[in-house]
Each structure stands twice: as C-alpha cells, then as structure tokens.
Design brief:
It comes from Seriola lalandi dorsalis. The protein is mainly β and about 60 residues long. It has 1 helix and 3 strands. The chain has one domain: Nucleotidyltransferase, domain 5. The protein has a 3-stranded antiparallel β-sheet with strand order 1-2-3, with no helix packed on it.
Length: about 60
C-alpha cells in the first residue's frame, strides 16, 4: 500500500501570522471547526525597548 493512501483530507485551512514584540507566530486552523492544527514560533532576540521594525517584519519573510 502506498504511503499517499494514508493521507487525511483536512478540507479548507486558514493560516494566521501573529507579529508580536518578542516573537512571530504562524498558526494553521481547520476553517470548518477552528481547530488549531499546527503552529510555529520564532523568538525575536532584541531589547524590547529598542524594537527595530526591520527585524520584526523580516521574520515574516520565512513564511512566504
């Protein structure tokens, strides 16, 4: 039996990016049930008082 025959159809998905002051989060939800299916978080290593917007928005590039 091929490995592809074990795939589960999840239906339409919704992705969200949360850009905070200390991290960037990427979340994937089932659009019908709102169940969180997956997430990933990357910490921003900088002084929160001296936030550089280029560093914050640069983290979004990894999700393109």
């Amino acid at each position: 039996m091929a490995a592809s025959s074990h795939r589960i159809m999840l239906g339409p998905l919704v992705a969200a990016i949360d850009q905070g002051t200390s991290s960037t989060r990427f979340l994937v939800f089932n659009s019908k049930t709102a169940e969180l299916l997956s997430h990933h978080q990357v910490e921003i290593k900088q002084n929160p008082v001296l936030l550089d917007p280029k560093i914050c928005t640069g983290n979004l590039e990894m999700y393109r």
